[in-house]
Amino acid sequence: MTELRRGPVVPQVANLLRQRLHTGHWVPGDRLPNEVALAAEFGVGRSSVREAVRLLVQDGLLDVRHGSGTFVAEARPGTGDVRQLVRRARVLEVYEVRRALEVEAARLAAQRVRPEDVERLRATLAARQDHRDGDPAVFVDADLAFHRAIVELSGNALLLSLFGAAEPVLREILTDLVRHETGLPDSSPAHAALLDALARGDADAAVAATVANLEPVLRGIRSAVG
Q: Band of the pLDDT at 201, cuts 50, 70, 90?
């Protein structure tokens, strides 16, 4: 049985299915195991598998043929660009939500942070920097740990819940970006500025640093979507 992380299940199942497609575990034309088999393998309910499959159908990666099953979509001329466009549109939606969420979290955290919290953030940021040139998945985990810590310091349970819901999708998006996109801006200075603003309790500077961190990537996604 595949062990999932704590948090929302559907994005994690969708990510596992995408990974199998990307690695060639299933190729175009292959029929996927049925919902019962996938649910048992992932340790989730059939409804979670069904919703995850629906997300991949939206991305053009799977075809559901009623009465026959779910199949890996055949590549057709021109579909690659369309799929990439749809995927980037979904990435844009997630990143827009992330920006709004983290801006407010940074503002609140600056008002509530304690000296011992700053030291913990400093160690978390150092771990992020240590992994910046290493394995993309490890780096993204370290990066998200830093941002999650700031959301936790906001003291707002709803913001933390929303971040937790978005985190599996963000992890997939960011890992894919770091692994495959060239010319990504180095956000290390913005991260350092954010930590400095929090240490000083400067809410306006914390907001500005958060925007400086997220906005360049967001602009790039918007440009790609057109």
A: very high
State pTM to two decimals: 0.64
Buried b (16+ CB within 10 A) or exposed e, 59-82: bbbbbeeeeeebbbbeeeeeeeee
Number of domains in the chain: 2
- What pLDDT, in 10s, does the model give residues 44-67? 999 999 998 988 887 778 999 988
Tokens of 173: 């998006």
- CA nearest neighbour of 171 among 190, 148, 187, 193: 148
| Whether residues 121 and 210 fall in one domain | yes
The reply to whether 149 falls in a domain is yes
Are 26 and 20 a contacting pair, CB within 8 Å? yes
Same domain, residue pair 60 and 103: no
What's the CATH code of the domain at 152? 1.20.120.530
- Please, what sign has the CA dihedral across residues 5, 9, 10, 16? positive
- Cβ contact 112:155 at 8 Å: yes
